[in-house]
């Protein structure tokens, strides 16, 4: 679940350092989580350069679904 949350935060921030700060983790750990998620689902979610990051079309497509999953989990936890 943490990888999915990390992906969503990074997708909104489009900045590794800012996303890592929001998640209260180190930037290398965030990078590793994103790389692991990309390996698990078999697609690149972000296009990276030395100065910028942007969502790929697959990354854009996943974002709505990932946000829904996280919202559903929040709902389930609050209903307990």
From TrEMBL:
InterPro entries: LysR_HTH_N (IPR000847), WH-like_DNA-bd_sf (IPR036388), WH_DNA-bd_sf (IPR036390). It comes from Dictyobacter formicarum. Residues 1-56 form the HTH lysR-type domain. The keyword Hydrolase does not apply. It comes from the Bacteria. Belongs to the LysR transcriptional regulatory family. Keywords: DNA-binding, Transcription, Transcription regulation. This is HTH lysR-type domain-containing protein. It holds the Pfam family HTH_1. PANTHER family: LYSR SUBSTRATE-BINDING, TRANSCRIPTIONAL DUAL REGULATOR HCAR-RELATED.
């Amino acid at each position: 679940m943490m990888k999915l949350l990390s992906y969503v935060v990074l997708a909104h921030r489009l900045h590794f350092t800012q996303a890592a700060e929001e998640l209260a983790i180190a930037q290398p750990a965030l990078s590793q989580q994103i790389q692991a998620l990309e390996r698990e689902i078999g697609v690149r979610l972000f296009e990276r350069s030395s100065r910028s990051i942007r969502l790929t079309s697959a990354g854009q497509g996943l974002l709505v679904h990932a946000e829904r999953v996280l919202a559903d989990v929040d709902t389930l936890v609050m209903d307990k």
